[in-house]
Design a protein that fits this description.
The chain has a single domain, classed as TIM Barrel. By secondary structure, the chain is an alpha/beta fold. 45% of the residues are buried. It has eleven helices and 14 strands. The strands form four sheets. It has an eight-stranded parallel beta barrel with strand order 1-2-5-8-9-10-11-14, surrounded by six helices. A two-stranded antiparallel ribbon has the order 3-4. It catalyses: D-erythrose 4-phosphate + phosphoenolpyruvate + H2O = 7-phospho-2-dehydro-3-deoxy-D-arabino-heptonate + phosphate.
């Protein structure tokens, strides 16, 4: 790594970056960001890496979920609390059914930038720069709002800091106490077709916990809180660079904007700026892989992103689509096995199953998401591999963006509460049902 430093990515072609009108203004903001306190610690990053290594061995299971793109307006107590609640509920179901420790990672406190398929968009004959997330510009279709503004990087840092502060406060004050899982209920869970199953799981876990503590004669203080990690797509490289730091008494550089940054499918070029940046940081890193990626390409990607073959360092997040995963995934799994490198495989069954309704509404079908996930478990097992986790776009709010689920949401029902600005998300009920489906799928094997 002697030729690497946090700015070396700037010598490579960088896709999906904002075109700021003033380099001087951008440089000034980067200087400010570079002097601000880190958002996470190197100890947390290293602890997560150890847990991801356990998931790769099949000893734990990773649950990663959250919004497709956070907005600055999402930094409110109810929205943050609901995101934590649904992830906690899902993890409770998975712990009960899989009998494994669950690693909870939220797409939260930094998911403010999004890749776009085009640099501009045209509406009624007017062409403006594309909206690239609140970290870059505004969603309003006006010339003023769409100009990339570096001051938004500071606003994003502030929102991420406030979100993380609230998450840590909730975790430490007993919000996640397993002695009182009834506190995790969202108000509308009682209306769900999954409610009875969920409450039975809660009851069973509570009885088991009280039995163990009675046997041991004392409460375990670790049960009163859970560790919650953060992740986001490391898309905006100037922002990531500014929060990359050297830490006393440790070697190398840590990205201290998040615990687990990942590389999106559009920017995973071997000679590109994102791979150059990610190859040098000490964090565990994720990368999206899928259809169109050759076996030799993936092997080289693994070599570059985990040159020292460090357990827990590299997370491969595969996304194909329900109709493509059977053809595409086995070859990639086998190719990585031939490298004899340590990786953690997790499934993103969301992105490959995006479609549009006849009226042009972007959606995903619950049955296709579940199908890809079920096939992925089977493929990894057949190849002698381990599928160690899942990656969902979801929300704890009562939205209607994905078709299907226990209530049979149809295309007409999407209109009731379709709120996403980018990709459709599983709502609270569909997410909980998905966790139960994972357990039932694995119990049947």
């Amino acid at each position: 790594m002697g030729d690497w430093h946090p700015e070396s990515w700037q010598k490579r072609p960088a896709k999906q970056q904002a075109g700021y009108p003033s380099k001087e203004a951008l440089d000034g903001v980067i200087t400010q960001l570079s002097s601000l306190p880190p958002l996470v610690t190197s100890w947390e990053v290293d602890a997560l890496k150890n847990q991801l290594a356990a998931a790769a061995r099949g000893e734990a299971f990773l649950l990663q979920g959250g919004d497709c793109a956070e907005n600055f307006t999402d930094c409110t107590s109810p929205i943050i609390t609901n995101k934590l609640k649904i992830l906690l509920q899902m993890s409770l179901v998975l712990i009960h059914g899989l009998n494994k420790r669950v690693i909870r990672i939220g797409r939260i406190a930094g998911q403010y930038a999004k890749p776009r398929s085009a640099d501009s968009e045209t509406i009624d004959g007017v062409t403006l720069p594309s909206y690239r997330g609140d970290l870059v510009n505004g969603p309003e279709f006006t010339a003023e709002a769409r100009v990339p503004d570096p001051v938004r990087l500071l606003r994003g840092y502030g929102r991420a800091a406030m979100t993380l502060n609230f998450i840590r406060a909730l975790s430490d004050c007993g919000f996640a106490d397993l002695h009182h899982p009834e506190n995790w209920d969202l108000d509308f869970v009682r209306h769900s077709a999954m409610a009875d199953k969920y409450h039975k799981i809660v009851k069973d876990l509570s009885h088991s916990l009280h039995f163990m503590e009675t046997l041991g004669g004392a409460e375990n203080p670790e049960i009163n809180r859970v560790q919650f990690y953060t992740s986001h797509e490391g898309l905006h490289l100037h922002y990531e660079q500014a929060l990359t730091r050297q830490v006393p008494n440790k070697t190398g550089f840590y990205n201290l904007s998040t615990h687990l940054p990942w590389i999106g499918f559009r920017t995973a070029e071997l000679d590109g700026a994102h791979i150059e940046y990610f190859r040098g940081i000490q964090n565990p890193v994720g990368v999206k892989v899928g259809a169109g990626m050759s076996e030799t390409y993936l092997q080289e990607l693994v070599e570059r992103l985990n040159p020292d073959d460090e357990p827990g360092k590299l997370v491969l997040i595969h996304r194909f689509g329900a109709h493509k995963v059977a053809d595409g995934l086995p070859g990639l799994v086998n190719a990585v096995q031939r490298t004899e490198r340590n990786v953690l495989w997790i499934s993103d069954p969301m992105h490959g199953n995006t479609e549009s309704t006849a009226r042009g509404v972007k959606t995903r079908r619950f049955e296709n998401i579940l199908s890809e996930l079920s096939q992925s478990f089977e493929i990894h097992k057949a190849e002698g591999s381990v599928l160690g986790g899942v990656h969902f776009e979801l929300t704890g709010d009562d939205v209607t963006e994905c078709i299907g689920g226990a209530r049979g949401l149809d295309e007409t029902g999407l209109e009731r509460a379709y709120r996403t600005q980018v990709d459709p998300r599983l709502n609270y009920e569909q997410a909980l049902e998905m966790a139960m489906a994972i357990v039932e799928n694995q119990a049947a094997k």
